[in-house]
Design goal:
This protein is α/β, with parallel strands linked by helices. It has a single domain, classed as 3-Layer(aba) Sandwich (Ribose 5-phosphate Isomerase B, Chain: A). Helix content is about 50%, strand content about 15%. It contains six helices and five strands. A five-stranded parallel β-sheet has the order 2-1-3-5-4, sandwiched between helices. The radius of gyration is 14 Å and the shape is globular. Bound molecules: D-ribose. The site of D-ribose has 8 residues, from helix 3.
Length: about 150
């Protein structure tokens, strides 16, 4: 599985733990940075990763301090459905019901142990379609109207 990763300085260490975990599992990781704890603005990373995830039709993971700023920014990219999660149920259901393509987490909110569990369930869960597809179509329609 190919997975896109990105983080600002607040999510750098968590992103590195996720990267190691995915590589150890045999996944292919495309790392958009950041590559240090030097301060960097999360919107720039969110845009790059969001565009890539939509273009390649893959899943990705974004981390900042809270997971919130980077998810707000990523959701401005057409086709992105980014969900900021810090619990197992939400990380699973955002794939099953929202067909989320980006999982966002806060490096200052969740520990690496929990974060890796959230990543695993997010990547393993399939979108259920059915009535949920109608709701995704409504979200896409809003996106089109805003263009
Ligand atoms: C950076 O200090 C911090 O604001 C950022 O990582 C994130 O938490 C924003 O939502």
């Amino acid at each position: 599985m190919k997975i896109a990763l990105g983080a600002d300085h607040g999510g750098f260490e968590l992103k590195e733990a996720i990267k190691k975990h995915l590589i150890d599992k045999g996944d292919e990781v495309v790392d958009f940075g950041t590559h240090s704890t030097d301060s960097i603005d999360y919107a720039l990373i969110a845009k790059e990763v969001g565009e890539y995830v939509v273009k390649e039709n893959i899943l990705g993971v974004l981390c900042c301090g809270t997971g919130i700023g980077i998810s707000i920014a990523a959701n401005k990219v057409n086709g992105v459905r980014a969900a900021c999660c810090s619990d197992y149920f939400s990380a699973k259901l955002t794939r099953a019901h929202n067909n989320a393509n980006l999982l966002c987490m806060g490096g200052r909110v969740v520990g690496a142990g929990l974060a890796l569990e959230l990543v695993d369930v997010f990547l393993a869960t399939e979108f259920e379609g059915g009535r949920h597809q109608r709701r995704i179509d409504q979200i896409t329609a809003i996106e089109q109207e805003q263009k």
